[in-house]
Amino acid sequence: MKLYVVRHCSTECSEKKIYCGSSDIPLSPRGEQEAEALTERAKGYRFDLLISSPLLRARQTAFAIAGESGVPVLFEERLKERNFGAFEGTSVEAPEGKVYRYSFALQYPSGESNLQVAARVYAFLGELKEKYAGKDIFIVSHGSACRIIRSYFKQMTDEEFYRFSQPNGTIEEYEL
Rg of the chain over CA atoms, in angstroms? Predict the structure, then answer.
């Protein structure tokens, strides 16, 4: 079973390095161009199913990947981006947010911790193995969830975990 994990294409928030987390925003013009290129790249993959975060930027990316293939697109709440709570809409470079960003168990005020994201994403991956055994699947998600997915498949030190950032519109491949 192969998993092709895609981080949604670019948004204005990702371009400006602003936390958008649970905000439901569309792709930027650059993101739309990335999605067109992704449509072409995805034609080189064989897959049975596409599962996406329900947030708009991920849905737009998922439909670009699916193209006219007829492959079913399902939506999964557990693939949503980390909720950055009070920091939604602020700069990811702001020093006051970094303590939450680089902590595994510390929860953003009114938001989530990496631990909470890991719990929901790991549960989803465990169910995926059972429910879709033998299927090749595209997953479209967000930066934090993509980092968590990588940690499910690859041993990572804390430094490697926090340094990893899957670029928008790119595909990582894993064997489940």
Answer: 15
